Amino acid sequence: MSCLLAVGVTAHAELQRGSAAPSFRARNVEGLSVVSGQLKANVVILDFWTTWAKPCGDAMQQWEKLHQKYSGQGLLVIGIAMDEDPKPVKPFLKQKGITYQVLLDADGRISERYKVKEQPTTYIIDRRGIIREVFPGYKTGLEKIVEQNLVNLLKEK
Fold this sequence. Notes:
Blueprint: H1 3-12, E1 25-27, E2 33-35, E3 43-49, H2 54-70, E4 75-81, H3 89-96, E5 101-104, H4 109-113, E6 121-125, E7 131-136, H5 142-155
Parallel strand pairs: 3-4, 4-5
Antiparallel strand pairs: 1-2, 3-6, 6-7
Protein backbone atom coordinates (compact mmCIF):
# COMPACT_ATOMS: atom_id res chain seq x y z
CA MET A 1 0.00 0.00 0.00
CA SER A 2 1.45 3.37 -0.93
CA CYS A 3 2.09 6.09 1.63
CA LEU A 4 -0.29 8.38 -0.22
CA LEU A 5 -3.13 5.89 0.11
CA ALA A 6 -2.36 5.35 3.80
CA VAL A 7 -2.48 9.11 4.44
CA GLY A 8 -5.82 9.35 2.63
CA VAL A 9 -7.26 6.57 4.78
CA THR A 10 -6.17 8.26 8.00
CA ALA A 11 -7.57 11.62 6.98
CA HIS A 12 -11.05 10.35 6.13
CA ALA A 13 -11.90 7.47 8.45
CA GLU A 14 -11.86 7.54 12.22
CA LEU A 15 -11.82 3.77 12.67
CA GLN A 16 -8.23 2.81 12.15
CA ARG A 17 -6.45 -0.31 11.01
CA GLY A 18 -5.89 -2.58 13.98
CA SER A 19 -9.15 -1.58 15.71
CA ALA A 20 -11.77 -4.15 16.59
CA ALA A 21 -14.66 -4.00 14.14
CA PRO A 22 -17.77 -2.68 15.93
CA SER A 23 -20.55 -5.19 16.45
CA PHE A 24 -23.97 -4.71 14.90
CA ARG A 25 -27.34 -6.31 14.26
CA ALA A 26 -29.35 -5.54 11.13
CA ARG A 27 -31.89 -6.97 8.73
CA ASN A 28 -30.89 -8.03 5.26
CA VAL A 29 -32.89 -7.13 2.15
CA GLU A 30 -34.93 -10.32 2.64
CA GLY A 31 -35.88 -9.26 6.19
CA LEU A 32 -33.67 -11.80 8.02
CA SER A 33 -31.72 -10.68 11.08
CA VAL A 34 -27.92 -10.77 10.86
CA VAL A 35 -25.57 -10.33 13.83
CA SER A 36 -21.97 -9.35 13.18
CA GLY A 37 -20.71 -12.17 15.41
CA GLN A 38 -21.93 -14.58 12.72
CA LEU A 39 -19.23 -13.21 10.40
CA LYS A 40 -16.22 -14.28 12.49
CA ALA A 41 -13.92 -16.96 11.13
CA ASN A 42 -14.25 -15.28 7.73
CA VAL A 43 -12.40 -12.48 6.02
CA VAL A 44 -15.00 -9.78 5.42
CA ILE A 45 -15.35 -6.97 2.92
CA LEU A 46 -17.84 -4.63 4.59
CA ASP A 47 -18.94 -2.07 2.02
CA PHE A 48 -21.08 0.97 2.95
CA TRP A 49 -22.95 2.37 -0.05
CA THR A 50 -26.00 4.19 -1.40
CA THR A 51 -28.04 3.69 -4.56
CA TRP A 52 -27.59 7.31 -5.63
CA ALA A 53 -23.77 7.55 -5.65
CA LYS A 54 -22.29 6.21 -8.91
CA PRO A 55 -18.93 5.20 -7.37
CA CYS A 56 -20.87 2.90 -5.02
CA GLY A 57 -22.29 0.90 -7.92
CA ASP A 58 -18.85 0.72 -9.55
CA ALA A 59 -17.27 -0.58 -6.34
CA MET A 60 -20.08 -3.08 -5.75
CA GLN A 61 -19.54 -4.70 -9.12
CA GLN A 62 -15.85 -5.18 -8.26
CA TRP A 63 -16.71 -6.66 -4.85
CA GLU A 64 -19.16 -9.00 -6.60
CA LYS A 65 -16.27 -10.32 -8.73
CA LEU A 66 -14.22 -10.93 -5.57
CA HIS A 67 -17.25 -12.58 -3.94
CA GLN A 68 -17.57 -14.97 -6.89
CA LYS A 69 -13.84 -15.72 -6.89
CA TYR A 70 -13.12 -16.13 -3.15
CA SER A 71 -16.35 -16.94 -1.29
CA GLY A 72 -15.42 -20.63 -1.24
CA GLN A 73 -12.13 -19.76 0.45
CA GLY A 74 -13.55 -17.92 3.46
CA LEU A 75 -14.44 -14.49 2.07
CA LEU A 76 -17.73 -12.84 2.97
CA VAL A 77 -18.77 -9.70 1.15
CA ILE A 78 -21.42 -7.76 3.04
CA GLY A 79 -22.98 -4.62 1.64
CA ILE A 80 -24.49 -2.03 3.96
CA ALA A 81 -27.18 -0.02 2.16
CA MET A 82 -27.30 3.44 3.72
CA ASP A 83 -30.36 4.67 1.81
CA GLU A 84 -32.96 6.23 4.12
CA ASP A 85 -35.66 4.72 1.91
CA PRO A 86 -34.91 1.01 1.42
CA LYS A 87 -37.41 0.60 -1.48
CA PRO A 88 -34.91 1.18 -4.31
CA VAL A 89 -32.29 -1.17 -2.81
CA LYS A 90 -33.57 -4.53 -4.12
CA PRO A 91 -34.13 -3.29 -7.71
CA PHE A 92 -30.68 -1.66 -7.62
CA LEU A 93 -29.06 -4.94 -6.53
CA LYS A 94 -30.83 -6.82 -9.31
CA GLN A 95 -29.79 -4.25 -11.91
CA LYS A 96 -26.14 -4.44 -10.79
CA GLY A 97 -26.13 -8.26 -10.54
CA ILE A 98 -25.18 -8.29 -6.86
CA THR A 99 -25.53 -11.70 -5.20
CA TYR A 100 -23.71 -11.14 -1.91
CA GLN A 101 -25.62 -10.34 1.26
CA VAL A 102 -26.82 -6.77 1.74
CA LEU A 103 -27.98 -5.31 5.05
CA LEU A 104 -30.21 -2.27 5.47
CA ASP A 105 -28.97 0.67 7.54
CA ALA A 106 -31.77 3.19 6.94
CA ASP A 107 -31.48 4.51 10.50
CA GLY A 108 -27.70 4.97 10.15
CA ARG A 109 -26.76 3.01 13.27
CA ILE A 110 -24.17 0.77 11.61
CA SER A 111 -22.59 3.53 9.53
CA GLU A 112 -22.41 5.68 12.65
CA ARG A 113 -20.61 2.91 14.58
CA TYR A 114 -18.14 2.60 11.69
CA LYS A 115 -17.82 6.39 11.41
CA VAL A 116 -18.57 6.38 7.69
CA LYS A 117 -18.15 9.84 6.18
CA GLU A 118 -18.06 8.98 2.47
CA GLN A 119 -19.97 6.62 0.21
CA PRO A 120 -18.68 4.14 -0.58
CA THR A 121 -16.42 3.26 2.33
CA THR A 122 -15.02 -0.25 2.39
CA TYR A 123 -13.57 -2.06 5.38
CA ILE A 124 -11.54 -5.25 5.22
CA ILE A 125 -11.90 -7.23 8.44
CA ASP A 126 -9.80 -10.27 9.30
CA ARG A 127 -10.96 -13.59 10.77
CA ARG A 128 -10.48 -12.30 14.33
CA GLY A 129 -12.73 -9.28 13.75
CA ILE A 130 -9.89 -6.76 13.41
CA ILE A 131 -10.07 -3.97 10.82
CA ARG A 132 -7.11 -4.47 8.51
CA GLU A 133 -7.84 -1.81 5.88
CA VAL A 134 -10.20 1.13 5.35
CA PHE A 135 -10.87 2.56 1.90
CA PRO A 136 -13.03 5.71 1.75
CA GLY A 137 -14.30 6.33 -1.78
CA TYR A 138 -13.68 4.27 -4.89
CA LYS A 139 -11.39 4.75 -7.86
CA THR A 140 -10.67 2.28 -10.62
CA GLY A 141 -7.76 0.10 -9.55
CA LEU A 142 -8.76 -0.09 -5.89
CA GLU A 143 -10.06 -3.61 -6.52
CA LYS A 144 -6.48 -4.77 -7.22
CA ILE A 145 -5.26 -3.42 -3.87
CA VAL A 146 -8.23 -4.99 -2.09
CA GLU A 147 -7.64 -8.34 -3.80
CA GLN A 148 -3.96 -8.35 -2.79
CA ASN A 149 -5.00 -7.75 0.82
CA LEU A 150 -7.63 -10.49 0.64
CA VAL A 151 -5.27 -13.08 -0.78
CA ASN A 152 -2.89 -12.49 2.13
CA LEU A 153 -5.65 -12.54 4.75
CA LEU A 154 -7.26 -15.66 3.37
CA LYS A 155 -3.95 -17.48 3.84
CA GLU A 156 -3.99 -16.61 7.57
CA LYS A 157 -5.76 -19.10 9.81
